[in-house]
C-alpha cells in the first residue's frame, strides 16, 4: 500500500526527511483502506519507518488486532533533491547545479539505483510473505519503490515516466504468491474518491500542484 496524502503546504520533495505527517485527508484515506481490508485475512502489517507510512498502517493493524511492525527496506527511495522543491514549472531543470544529477535517467543518477530498490523491496515482500504464510500481509511503503518492484515482477523496464506510475495515494498493489513464487499482481484504489484529481494515476501534471508527486 502507498501511504495517504501528506501535509506539505510548501511543496517540498520530502523523501526520507522526518516529521512529514498525514494530512487530515490522508488520515481519511488510511481509515478508508482499513475499512476496505477489515474483512480480509490479514495476519501481518508492516510499514516503512517514515511517519506518513506508519500513520497509514496504524488503522489497518488496529482493525485486525495486530501490532505494527517496521521494515527499513520499505523506506522511500533516496533522492539528491530531498528537501527542495522540484516540480513542473518551478525552473529546477534550468538550474546548472542540478544538471550533474540528471545525466542518467536509466540508473537513475539523481537517487537510489532502481536495482537496489528492487533488491530491498523483494526482500521486504518475502519477509512479509513468510510472516503471514497462508494468510495475507499488508506492507505500507512509498510510490517509487512500489512501482519499481511491480515493474520488475511484471518484467517491464525500470526507467520510466514518473507521470505514468499506476500508484495513486492509498492505493493497493497486490502480489499473490503460490509457495514462494509470485504468480499474479493486482491493483486497486479503495480511496480513489478522496484523491485530488491531479494526483490520480496517469493524471496530467498541474503547475504548482505536483511538486511532491513522487513521494
TrEMBL record:
CDD domains: HP_PGM_like
Name used for this protein in its record: Histidine phosphatase family protein
SMART domains on file: PGAM
InterPro entries: His_Pase_superF_clade-1, His_PPase_superfam, PGM_Phosphatase
Cellular component GO terms held in the UniProt record: cytoplasm
Originating species: Streptomyces boluensis
SUPFAM superfamilies named in the record: Phosphoglycerate mutase-like
GO terms of molecular function: phosphatase activity
Pfam families: His_Phos_1
Amino acid at each position: 500500500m502507498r501511504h495517504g496524502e501528506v501535509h506539505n503546504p510548501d511543496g517540498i520533495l520530502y523523501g526520507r526527511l522526518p516529521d512529514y505527517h498525514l494530512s487530515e485527508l490522508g488520515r481519511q484515506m488510511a481509515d478508508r483502506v482499513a475499512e476496505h481490508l477489515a474483512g480480509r485475512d490479514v495476519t501481518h502489517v508492516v510499514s516503512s519507518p517514515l511517519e506518513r507510512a506508519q500513520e497509514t498502517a496504524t488503522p489497518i493493524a488496529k482493525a485486525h488486532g495486530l501490532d505494527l511492525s517496521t521494515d527499513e527496506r520499505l523506506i522511500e527511495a533516496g533522492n539528491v533533491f530531498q528537501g527542495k522543491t522540484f516540480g513542473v514549472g518551478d525552473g529546477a531543470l534550468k538550474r546548472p547545479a542540478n544538471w550533474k544529477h540528471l545525466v542518467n535517467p536509466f540508473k537513475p543518477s539523481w537517487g537510489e539505483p532502481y536495482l537496489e530498490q528492487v533488491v530491498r523491496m523483494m526482500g521486504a515482500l518475502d519477509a512479509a510473505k513468510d510472516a503471514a504464510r497462508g494468510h495475507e500481509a499488508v506492507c505500507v511503503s512509498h510510490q517509487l519503490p512500489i512501482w519499481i518492484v511491480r515493474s520488475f515482477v511484471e518484467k517491464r523496464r525500470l526507467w520510466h515516466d514518473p507521470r505514468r506510475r499506476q500508484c495513486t495515494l492509498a492505493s493497493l498493489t497486490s502480489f499473490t504468491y503460490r509457495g514462494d513464487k509470485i504468480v499474479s499482481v493486482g491493483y486497486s484504489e479503495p480511496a480513489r474518491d478522496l484523491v485530488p484529481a491531479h494526483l490520480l494515476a496517469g493524471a496530467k501534471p498541474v503547475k504548482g500542484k505536483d511538486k511532491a508527486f513522487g513521494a
